[in-house]
Design brief:
This protein is 73% helix and 1% strand. With 300 residues, the protein is an all-alpha fold.
C-alpha cells in the first residue's frame, strides 16, 4: 500500500507541474487559437533565472526560505518579460496571417530560445540547489511523500485558486472570458484585446516559471533542453483534458502524471513516454475534443 501511495503522490506532483505549464497553453489557445510552442522554453528560462538568483543570494548569506521566495519572484518577472516580448515580436504581427504562419513562428521561437540559453549557459546539466526545506513533521511520512512534493502540491493548489478568482471576479478576467468567447464582439464593446492577450501571455509565463523553480529544486538539476520535454508533456496534458478548457488542462495534467507514475512503478521507466502518448492517442480517437473539451461546429 505504501508503494501505491508513493506512486500516487509522485504522479500528483508530476501532474501539478504539468498543470502549471498546460494552463499557459490552454489560456493562449482559448483566446487567440494559437499553440505557443515556445511556452516550454519560457518554463526553462524561469528555472535558469531562478538558479542565477539563488546563486547570488546564497553568496549573500540569506536563509533557504528567503532564497526560494526571492528566486521565484525573479523567475516570474524574468519569464513574464520573455512571454510578453515573444508575443509582441513573434505572434502579434502574424495575428491576421494564415494559421500556419504563427505556428511556424512559434516553433522557430522555441528553437531560438533553446539555442540562446545553450550559448549563454552550457549544454551540460547544472546542479540546482534544494531550496525547499525538509519539514520535521513530514519525517514519519517521508517514505511516501517528501516535503518538496507537499510544497509543490500546496503551491499548485494555491495558484489554481488565485487563477480561478482572477478569471471569475476581476475586470481583466471578465475581459479574458469575453475575448475568448468572441474577440470581434469584445472589441466592439470596448475591450482592449491587445492588452488582454498580453496579460494572458504574462500570466501563463508566470505559472510556467513557478513550475520551473519548484521542479528544478525538487529534482536538483537543469539544462537547456528541459523546456522542450516539459512543454511537449504539458501540451499533451492540455489536449488530453480539452485544449482551451482550464479545468480540462488541470484534469489532463493529473491524468498524465498518474499514468506516467504508475507505468514507471509497475511496468518500466523505459515505457513512461509510451504509455503517456498512447493514452493521448486513445483520447483523440474516442473523444477528439478531450476529456472536458466541447466539440465545435464551424460555419462555411
Amino acid at each position: 500500500m505504501d508503494y501505491f501511495l508513493e506512486l500516487f503522490f509522485g504522479g500528483l506532483t508530476r501532474g501539478s507541474i504539468y498543470a502549471l505549464i498546460a494552463l499557459g497553453y490552454t489560456m493562449v489557445y482559448g483566446i487567440i487559437e494559437l499553440i505557443n510552442f515556445a511556452h516550454g522554453e519560457i518554463y526553462m528560462i524561469g528555472a535558469f533565472s531562478a538558479l542565477i538568483a539563488a546563486s547570488v543570494l546564497t553568496m549573500l548569506g540569506l536563509n533557504q526560505i528567503a532564497i526560494l521566495v526571492i528566486a521565484s519572484v525573479v523567475a516570474v518577472i524574468y519569464s513574464s518579460a520573455y512571454g510578453f516580448t515573444v508575443e509582441k515580436i513573434a505572434y502579434k504581427p502574424l495575428r491576421h496571417a494564415p494559421r500556419l504562419s504563427p505556428l511556424i513562428s512559434a516553433i522557430g521561437m522555441s528553437i531560438f530560445l533553446q539555442n540562446y540559453v545553450l550559448l549563454a549557459q552550457t549544454s551540460d546539466f547544472l546542479p540546482f540547489p534544494a531550496l525547499i526545506p525538509e519539514f520535521a513533521f513530514m519525517e514519519p511520512y517521508s517514505h511516501i511523500i517528501s516535503s518538496a512534493e507537499v510544497v509543490i502540491l500546496m503551491t499548485t493548489a494555491f495558484v489554481m485558486v488565485l487563477l480561478t478568482l482572477l478569471i471569475k471576479f476581476t475586470k481583466i478576467g471578465k475581459a479574458m472570458r469575453a475575448t475568448a468567447q468572441d474577440r470581434d464582439m469584445a472589441m466592439l464593446v470596448g475591450v482592449n484585446v491587445n492588452r488582454v492577450i498580453s496579460v494572458t501571455f504574462i500570466i501563463g509565463s508566470s505559472l510556467a516559471a513557478i513550475g520551473g523553480v519548484l521542479i528544478a529544486s525538487h529534482i536538483g538539476m537543469i539544462n537547456f533542453y528541459i523546456g522542450f520535454i516539459a512543454g511537449i508533456k504539458a501540451f499533451t496534458a492540455a489536449v488530453l483534458g480539452g485544449i482551451g478548457s482550464i479545468p480540462g488542462a488541470v484534469l489532463g495534467a493529473f491524468v498524465l502524471g498518474w499514468t506516467e507514475s504508475f507505468a514507471t512503478g509497475y511496468v518500466s521507466s523505459d515505457y513512461e513516454d509510451v504509455f503517456a502518448f498512447t493514452l493521448l492517442v486513445f483520447i483523440l480517437i474516442f473523444r477528439p475534443a478531450g476529456i472536458l473539451g466541447r466539440s465545435t461546429t464551424q460555419k462555411v
